[in-house]
From TrEMBL:
It holds the Pfam family MFE-2_hydrat-2_N. CDD domains: HDE_HSD (cd03448). Belongs to the enoyl-CoA hydratase/isomerase family. This is Acyl dehydratase. One of its GO terms (molecular function) is (3S)-3-hydroxyacyl-CoA dehydrogenase (NAD+) activity. Residues 166-262 form the MaoC-like domain. Residues 18-147 form the Peroxisomal multifunctional enzyme type 2-like N-terminal domain. It comes from the Bacteria. SUPFAM superfamilies: Thioesterase/thiol ester dehydrase-isomerase (SSF54637). GO terms for biological process: fatty acid beta-oxidation.
Amino acid sequence: MPIDPAVAVGADLGVSKFEWGSTDVLLYHLALGAGASPLAESELPYVLEDRLKVLPTFGVVAPNFRMFEPPAVTFPGIDVDLSKVLHGTQSITVHGPLPAEGRAMAQSRIADVWDKGKAAVIIQEATVTTLDGDPLWTTRSGIFARGEGGFGGSRGPSERLPAPTGDPVLEVEVPTLPQQALLYRLCGDRNPLHADPAFAARAGFDRPILHGLCTYGVVCKALVDNLLGGDVTKVETFSTRFAGVLFPGETLRVRAWRTESGYQAAATAVERDDVPVLDETVLTVH
């Protein structure tokens, strides 16, 4: 079915209730590579429940953490083959420290659909509150659907965040595990693109790729640990554009530059001559 922007844009996707506990947070952190140095005092608050802190990016996956079926890209006015889909952008704004356990509800909608000619971009927004209505966090994601453009919609904004100049205040290498995607899929994203070589081949890749949201979380953790002294409560927003793919087992090179409100960062794949993986990555500080 072709995309129908008249139906899709503004479509209310309803309210979903969900809950999480410390085990979910621990699994999420481990799936990002936390605890790689299990004796390091800086790592223990990510992996021990008696002192647990929650990385803000957990809020992006929390509503779907306990989903066990591959995601379906089917919304009002939209029906897209999963093999054509890649994550394009992601942001989260947190309104306070994320609790290690809780119950919440997410109100979601399709904010926009853009026609890029050979592809479509689907923008989804979600507002998450406690069951009493107190704000917890908001997210905005962009899904890039290859081959789904040409439906006559708006192209959307074309502005890009200018690349930072000068020397970075941080440059660090972060390794990933060969089985990183198999761990991360336990956090609710069972897209076979990240586990099944045959499905990855149909999507145009010679092997499964790492979840974009895994890379997103890994980079956020690297910035928090190296620039914010490990204080997750200092993060107000964290946003990125997915500029390329990372294969499990590759090493990320994370660079960051200071800005007026926090930091701008970029991540590249070391083993492939620093091909871009994330760019236009912004962390703002409370």
